[in-house]
Design a protein that fits this description.
Helix 10 links the parallel strand 8 and strand 9. The radius of gyration is 18 Å and the shape is globular. Strands 1-9-8-3-7-4-6-5-2 form a nine-stranded mixed beta sheet, sandwiched between helices. It starts with 12 loop residues before the first helix and ends in a 19-residue tail after the last strand. The N terminus is likely disordered. The chain is of the alpha/beta class and 305 residues long.
């Protein structure tokens, strides 16, 4: 874990955490949202359509489904091809930092495994899945990249239900069964550039499967035929389930979601120490109710909230 000196008594949680751990805080999300994962009115129906492919053609046999845009809107998510909003602008800025680290530029080389991004939080209900799904939807709009959103919260998976999709085989099944290609578990959606890898069947040995040598082989298959793919993992909370610490060793970037006025500094320190397997960690402040600079993203386009 990074060495640190005693923090200053003044300053926000993120400022003090950044000083302690030498991490760069990511941009904050500008709204307090109801947790969309608790909604009980999500429709589980889905229609099959012709697969939409991006980048090199891959031999995936998984189902292709239509995502209900109204469900996304009602739950507070970014709506593909929808109007520019404050939340969509926030995630445009967040993704730019992550993509730069993953792909590099003329002034900096890409970080190892930077195309794998883990979204985590210290405790449940701090907005990690909300941020993971919105980040995936934002990256899906890129012209040179596509995104695979992996539900890695094996004990309490929620990505499929948030999109109104039905369950199927997933990552844990591919880890447990060497005969099951992980590509066959991927669900393609009608949202251009967005695919989903479900969590799969629950098991009491999820951490042990993740710590096995097979995990790296399976994760490599997710991008080996598609160098333009960004893989986002929606992780369990670091202080509530052990898989998060193991997943951190398989990714190049971690985005730690910190809920404004709720996540304590002690919890943040503890969670970051568990995620020390990844060298590149950024902090994302979620649920802020005001901006000290008066920032109001989205209003410039005429759709401010």
């Amino acid at each position: 874990m990074n060495k640190y000196s005693p923090p200053k008594k003044s300053g926000s949680l993120l400022e003090r955490a950044g000083e302690i751990y030498d991490y760069i805080p990511a941009v904050r999300t500008g709204e307090q949202r109801e947790n969309p994962l608790q909604r009980s009115d999500i429709d589980s129906s889905a229609r099959r359509v012709t697969p939409v492919r991006h980048g090199p053609v891959e031999a995936y046999d998984g189902p292709t489904v239509i995502v209900d845009r109204e469900k996304l809107k009602d739950a507070g998510f970014i709506v593909p091809d929808g109007p520019v909003t404050g939340i969509s602008e926030e995630f445009r800025i967040i993704k730019r930092q992550l993509l730069l680290a993953a792909k590099g530029s003329q002034k900096m080389a890409p970080i190892p495994r930077g195309e794998r991004i883990l979204i985590c939080s210290a405790h449940p209900d701090e907005g990690k899945t909300f941020c993971a799904l919105n980040l995936a939807l934002s990256i899906a709009a890129e012209k040179d990249n596509e995104v695979l959103l992996v539900d890695a919260d094996f004990a309490k998976p929620s990505i499929l239900s948030s999109l109104g999709l039905e369950g199927s085989k997933g990552l844990m099944d591919a880890l447990a069964d060497p005969q099951l290609p992980v590509e066959n578990c991927i669900i393609h959606t009608d949202i251009p550039g967005l695919a989903i890898l479900p969590a799969g069947d629950q098991t009491n040995a999820d951490t042990e499967y993740l710590a096995s040598s097979r995990t790296e082989q399976v994760l490599n298959r997710l991008t080996q035929n598609n160098p333009n793919r960004i893989v986002i993992f929606d992780s369990p909370p670091a202080l509530s389930a052990s898989p998060a610490s193991v997943l951190a060793m398989h990714v190049g970037q971690v985005l730690m979601v910190v809920k404004a006025d709720e996540t304590t500094e002690t919890a943040l320190r503890d969670a970051l120490s568990l995620l020390g397997g990844c060298d590149h960690i950024q902090l994302l402040l979620n649920g802020t109710k005001f901006s000290p600079t008066g920032r109001r993203f989205g209003s410039y386009y005429g759709y401010g909230e």
